[in-house]
Amino acid sequence: MAAPILILRDIHLRFGFQPLLDGAELFVSPGERICLVGRNGSGKSTLLKVAANLIEPTSGNRFVQPGTAIQYLPQEPDMSGFDTTLAYVEAGIGPNGDLYRAPYLLESLGLNGTENPAHLSGGEARRAALARVLAPEPDVLLLDEPTNHLDVSVIEWLENELNSLRSAMVIISHDRRFMEKLSRATVWIDRGEAKRLEQGFSHFENWRDEILEKEELDRHKLDRKIVREQHWLTYGVTARRKRNVRRLGDLMSLRQERKDQVRATGLVKMTVTEGEISGKRVIDAVNISKSYNNQPIISDFSIRINRGDRLGLVGPNGAGKTTLINMLTGILQPDSGHVELGTKLEMVTLDQRRETLDPNWTLVEALTDGRGDYVTVGTETRHVASYMKDFLFTPEQARTPVSVLSGGERGRLMLARALAKSSNLLVLDEPTNDLDLETLDLLQDMLAEYPGTILIVSHDRDFLDRCVTSTLLSLGEGRWQEYAGGYTDMLNQRALVEDITSPKRTKQAQQTRNSAPKADIKLSKRKLNFKEKHALETLPAKMKQLQADIEQLQVKLSDANLYTKKPNDFAKFSLKLSEQQAALLQAEEIWLNLEMLREEVEG
Known about the structure:
alpha/beta, Rossmann fold, Helix Hairpins, six-stranded mixed sheet, 20 helices, 21% strand
């Protein structure tokens, strides 16, 4: 590996008496792709600002190879002093740069360069800031949450653009899929220190779990005392993730149910009785349409949503996702068609803007609405300290003002407030913004337990894959299409349709029609290849064996004496259980996709 061009060594930083970074280090070589991960408040953004020379550490050294160009993308870019987005981007290129890069990047990101920076939305400001840091093609790119406020199509464009650059990159992002595609090394900020894995993000969680499990076994050897709450926050992540992995199996069953419902929609009589609506039916939308300034947002759209469905809405910014949500929930009336809502619906909405948080509240006041030390969660009354713990807040944070919480902590607080309210219909608008990996696992865990119906607007592809039973995609010009499964399932189904209806396939089908007897006329379809057929035949037995292995390991680990008498066996069985559960999940996903492919091909 080439010599590093950016070095942070033994970085210490304190805020008051609390150490944030305690000897953290970062080494960036030419062309390296590093993802920077860690819990909200662990110091990721702070370390990136030290790298960008925007913050002076309490102690430690920063070295930059002379002549190295560094560009930093902040979470909240400052565009003051510029009349247009083009002027803002060109100012970052420098005298010897390629000025043609500015209009190219702005156009690719959906801007024309004439926009007034003072009037940009959050997503537009993020795209302009991306254009500015990408335009000079620097030696090092420091990117703090580059996908926030971006729709899926722009995120996928950004992935391709970054992959085409020769720049070294250090990336902070909550988007798992984004980090998996771009990273080649991982730096984990944990309790002030930086641990490095010479592999990309896809290997991080297993590596982290192994470290935490070993620390858990050897915790009596640790020099410092770990208080109970910090111990739970640190080591509870492994158990939460394993529980989340197990519940993905249940999601597969729900997706199969929704798949059957999607197929039957065209055959169902959409007018239902009041009794049906108050029971299983939650929302029935029949031929609804909405236009603004003669521009169709929703055109002749119908859907039935039953109790327990988890529907994800995907589409570019401005496609009408929020409009459609408001129509489906009765907030906005359609221009034509009608929506029938089930009776006794209790809806709770999580707004991505988080405007309902009073910055002067303390954490406790925000959770209890200023009514003492207890919070009502559904029908249960709980002490606020106990409820805080569920959302990874420590007792020491109880009197912390909302104004000093990080973006991720505010997101966690909004989740805690929303999920405490009694509801049977949950509407989540970009719930993953600013959330760290542990909080995302926690949110997925809670959604898996939620007994009601969920509508999710999100650009996080991995989150949709893990949480929804069907995906509703904007096709443009007011057209929307529902696909069973998550985001990846939707892509697979669209690819299959495109494969069957491609010009080449259509020409082959026409030739078949011209040469074949009339009784044998059929549309040419892609057939399952030998490997796919073999997988369909063998995967059920493999999944059955994996399930049996998992059950045996769970029996062994349930022995209360195993941990104390045979700690090595406990660690070995725990690791094996994690591996087998991951293998089962992978096998189930492959089988489900192949089975859906087979059914689509066969008719």
